[in-house]
Design goal:
InterPro entries: CheY-like_superfamily, OmpR/PhoB-type_DNA-bd, Sig_transdc_resp-reg_C-effctor, Sig_transdc_resp-reg_receiver, WalR-like, WH-like_DNA-bd_sf
Keywords: DNA-binding, Phosphoprotein, Transcription, Transcription regulation, Two-component regulatory system
Mean pLDDT: 83
GO molecular function: phosphorelay response regulator activity; transcription cis-regulatory region binding
Number of strands: 14
Largest sheet: 5 strands, parallel
GO cellular component, one term: protein-DNA complex
Distance between the termini: 54 Å
Shape: elongated
Pfam families: Response_reg, Trans_reg_C
CATH architecture of the largest domain: 3-Layer(aba) Sandwich
Number of helices: 8
Radius of gyration: 18 Å
Structural class: alpha/beta
Low-confidence stretches: 7-15, 138-143
Strand order of the largest sheet: 4-3-5-6-7
Amino acid sequence: MTGPTRETGETGRMERPLKVLVVDDEEAITDLVVMALRYEGFDVHAVHSGQAALTRVALSPPDLLVLDVMLPDIDGFMLCQRLRGSGRGMPTLFLTARDATEDKVHGLTLGGDDYVTKPFAVSELVARVRAILRRAGAADSTPGPLRFSDLELDPETREVRRGGRHVELTATEYRLLHYLLANARKVLTRAQLLDHVWGHDFGGEARVLETYVSYLRRKIDPVPPSLIHTVRGVGYVLRLPR
């Protein structure tokens, strides 16, 4: 079976299967997830603690992290924060028994790309993994920089500049801005933004979207003209002020 691969090199040829790191202290869970994802063609490895995950990521960064919240040493939320703070952020799917809405909101606000609760269906987990990787790769395949006013986003280098000033974004902030910029002047509904950036629906997501729009405004709109605007009762649009 030919598995999912990463395009590399100037020729764009497929060189290696996509790597997934599973972090969970329940061996039955890791065995199940590893077996399912390997069957789908992914290059999968598992560790059972947060510290082991930090070591593994430093040695061989994965394309995606499947991360439990309740680990024996480092809380999964804290681990996600530490990885992103060190510049080693990567697409992350939380897989945990903690099913409270506030936990889901917290995980997504930290930069998680999806949140799946235990017990789970293997087929759904695989589909969500594929969706996250598809969304992560979609931005990279966009030809040429996107520009609007004095805002520029380069999908090849993932660099963002406003008025010539470099803007540092998290992975989730980048995806949100990319979608807004690719649809400049178009009003995007909350449902469209949630589906594109997070790809699923559950209670509390609206607050996560509002939080990330707020983060983007602080970074993109520190000086006039403001480019990110709220359309009351609908969603958001990237445009010049009227």
